Amino acid sequence: MELAEVVSEAARSQDRREFDALVQRYHKQAYNIAYRMAGNHADAEDLTQEAFIRAFRFFGQYRRELPFDSWLYKIMSNVFIDTLRRKPKVKLRSLDQPVATEEGEAQLDLPDSSSGPEESVLSTEMDVRIQEALSTLPEVFRMTVLYADIEGLSYEEIAEATNTNIGTVRSRLHRGRRLLRSKLKDLENELFL
Amino acid sequence: MNCRRVMNLISAYVDGELAGTEMLAIRRHLSECPECCQEYESVRQVKQALSRLRTVFPRNDLAAAIARRLDEVQVATYQKFYSRAIGFLHGKLSPVAAALAASGVALMFMTAGGIDGLAPQTLRSSVAALGQRTREVAFLRDVSKSQSQFGVTPDLVAASKRPDPSSELQFVSLTR
Ligand SMILES: [Zn+2]
């Protein structure tokens, strides 16, 4: 069995080396979107880890001509939906409530930076309010909106990532953005120039 | 194009995801319809607000944490492999084994006389001989890589089923 060990060790490390490099390259990007989906750090981390682990299990099916992040998002969408199914509704409801201030500060560990004009990042408060509004959206709407407006995926890519067709993506975006808009109505003056 | 239709397409219009003729028709409509124009502004602003959300960073050692969990995935796989291989050897197979090993990919065979390294040229005949004595061959996951690296003939590859992606390793029946 010694040779067998050597053989499988070699096979293992080949895939592992390649995969470790992908983890290194994509984990921050994946985490950012996971955070916006899940609404908090603990769940974002679980989601990111699960997505990578599932990706590794299925790595043999990954077609190298596709961008890895598109493939990872497809897996992450599935993990996200699966996780929600297993969780009690209460946990989801809690996202509707205002987030404690410390957590609001803690989750945004970027410097408040850039006093630049239009395209600058939002203030912490605005950011938290939008996150709250996002968390009230039905999950598939939330995912679709995030893929479109944070990741900038095309409708075709979103359809692939969320396992649906372009018509459905279009209608989820339409409805998702409308819902967001109504949730953010009271922020109109601060948020929308 | 009427207002109802424009309202329904406005999100896709903002994303530039409509056919050219539709884009033009909506643009024309917006220039003369204040209600739809307001809807357009509102969608555009929501999209813009989302794009201004901050990038949220994970803790510094997340990649390392993922790597550690991947190690566990591997261990579990190994255990599966060894328990199956050992069960296999102790079962219907008399201790018969041969292994082909090279640069990270390998086919593993259980044949008589312990573990031997097989040259690519001898692989085919070994498989044929093996097929008479045993019915099962353990494949490492990536059969196609083996094919290109060792020149395993397509009929051998065809004889293996596509590996189940949920298990790293599979025993497949050789029906020859
Ligand atoms: Zn109109």
Give an account of the 3D structure.
The complex is a heterodimer of chains A (193) and B (176). Chain A has 10 helices and no strands. Chain A is mainly alpha-helical and 193 residues long. Chain A folds into 2 domains: 84 residues, RNA polymerase sigma factor, region 2, helix turn helix motif (Rna Polymerase Sigma Factor, Chain: A); 71 residues, Winged helix-like DNA-binding domain superfamily/Winged helix DNA-binding domain (Arc Repressor Mutant, subunit A, Orthogonal Bundle), CATH 1.10.10. In chain A, helix 1 packs antiparallel against helix 2, helix 2 packs across helix 3 and helix 7 crosses helix 9. Chain A starts with a helix and ends with a helix. Chain B is α+β, with helices and mostly antiparallel strands and 176 residues long. Chain B has 2 domains: 49 residues, no CATH class; 99 residues, no CATH class. Helix content of chain B is 57%, strand content 11%. Chain B contains 7 helices and 4 strands; from the N terminus they run H-H-H-H-E-E-H-E-H-H-E. A 4-stranded antiparallel β-sheet of chain B has the order 1-2-3-4, with helices on both faces. In chain B, strand 1 and strand 2 form a beta hairpin. In chain B, helix 1 packs parallel to helix 3 and helix 2 packs across helix 3. The radius of gyration of chain B is 30 Å and the shape is elongated. The relative contact order of chain B is 0.09. The C terminus of chain B is likely disordered. At the A-B interface, helix 1, helix 2, helix 6, helix 7 and helix 9 of A face helix 1, helix 3 and helix 4 of B. The site of zinc ion has 6 residues of chain B, from helix 1 and helix 3.
